[in-house]
Every structure is written in structure tokens, then in C-alpha cells.
Amino acid sequence: MEQQLTLRIGLRDSATFANFFPGDNAASLHLLQQGTEPFVYLWGGPGSGRSHLLQAACHAEAARGGAPAYLPFADLPPGGVELLEGLEQMSLVCLDDLQAVAGDGAWEEELFHLYNRVRDAGGRLLAAADASPAALPVTLPDLRSRLAWGPVFQLQSLDDAGRLAALQLRAQARGMELGEEVGAYLLRRCPRDMHALFELLERLDQASLAAQRRLTIPFVRELIS
């Protein structure tokens, strides 16, 4: 139980399937919501939603009474391959940012064995990276084949209409009203990266609550100027 709690510390409360605006990624969202495919690989650029979907899968698995594990390799300290030991006991293993350990012989060897152990235990494993299995700089051929064992999805980044819809969906979940004019203003004046936009939305929510003011363009202009 202690290991399970440790491996779920990095989950964001807001990273749920209900909070994910799919855009052109409806097929991958639907498959992950079903929660039956034993192996899935997601890849896409920054802000494409791959971390959100892995964390959402963990939340959904926990809600079903399962035991999920989430490992973001980009945030792990050097070494530490022992973190993979025993993960086959979890009902769902989510491995994020595989590109951070690709090319590291020790990690690749342990990941290869983890795939085999998860298969033998009848569990599920979801992996995500910034490149496809074929393009990821993996040096162990057997691991590359394991990465493509199940469905492979390239996550498409949202266009501006999708970014606005995603912001409005996240605002609604926070109990905020984000009008189209205000949302369009944010997209014109702020970075288009969804992580940055969601962080800004959280700041705006806190500021509007503190000031007891609605989100209007003049109010937003004051905060981001």
C-alpha cells in the first residue's frame, strides 16, 4: 500500500477523462476510458495531452477499486531502476516520458522485463513519449517490439478552436464562466501551450475569487499585463 500511494503522488486532481477535451483524439480517449486494452502507447508533442490521459487512466482505475501506478520518467532522479520492481502487482502501470530513459541500457533492460511481467500477471500497461516506438532512440530491439505490442496513437495538438473549448471545459469544472471573447483574448496574448494556459486559468480563478470579480477582458488585462 505504501508503494501504491508513493507511485500516485504525482497525479493531478484535474487530470480526469471528464476534463479532457479530445479534439481529434477521440479514438484514443474512448479506448482508454474502456480500460480493457492490456497495452497502449501514446505519443505526441508537448501539450498534446499524453500525461493528462495517463493520469486520467490512473484516476479511473483507482475509482474502479484497482491499484494504479504512475511513473513520470522526466521527473525521476538519475538511476532508480529499482522503482520498476514489483510493479506487475499493480492492476495498471502508466509510464510517462519514456524518452527520458530511452538509450539508457539499465532502464531499457528493466522496462523490457516489466512488459513481460505485466503480461504474465494479466495487468495493463500504458506508455507515453514524445516520439513513436519506431522513432524513439531505444537501443534494445526487444524493448522496441514491446512498446508496439498494443494500439499506438499519435495525439494531435489542438487548434485554436480546440484550445478555447478545452479552456472553457476546464473553467466549467472549476465553477468559472469563461466567455468566448475572454478566452479568445487569452489565446491572442498568452502562450498557446495548454499547460501554461491551464496554469494561467488557475491563477485567474484565484484572483477573481479574491477580488469577487467576474472574468472580463479589462480584469484579465490587469492580471497579465
Task: Please tell me about this protein's structure.
The protein has 225 residues and is an alpha/beta fold. The chain has 2 domains: 2-154, Rossmann fold; 160-224, Helicase, Ruva Protein, domain 3, CATH 1.10.8. 45% of the residues lie in helices and 11% in strands. It has a 5-stranded parallel sheet with strand order 2-3-4-1-5, sandwiched between helices. Helix 4 links the parallel strand 3 (92-96) and strand 4. The termini are far apart.
CATH architecture of the largest domain, by name, is 3-Layer(aba) Sandwich
Mean of all residue-level pLDDT scores? 90
The helicity comes to 40-55%
Structural class label: alpha/beta
Shape verdict: elongated
The strand count comes to 5
Uncertain ranges: 1-6
Number of helices: 9
Looking across the biggest beta sheet, what order are the strands in? 2-3-4-1-5
Topology readout:
Layout: H1 2-6, H2 26-34, E1 39-43, H3 50-63, E2 68-72, E3 92-96, H4 105-121, E4 124-129, H5 141-147, E5 152-154, H6 160-173, H7 180-189, H8 194-211, H9 217-224
Parallel strand pairs: 1-4, 1-5, 2-3, 3-4
Helix pairs in contact: 4-5, 6-7, 6-8
Keywords:
single chain; 225 residues; alpha/beta; Rossmann fold; Helicase, Ruva Protein, domain 3; 2 domains; five-stranded parallel beta sheet; 9 helices; 5 strands; 45% helix; elongated; disordered N terminus
Compact overview of the structure:
The chain is α/β, with parallel strands linked by helices and 225 residues long. It has helices at 2-6, 26-34, 50-63, 105-121, 141-147, 160-173, 180-189, 194-211, 217-224; strands at 39-43, 68-72, 92-96, 124-129, 152-154.
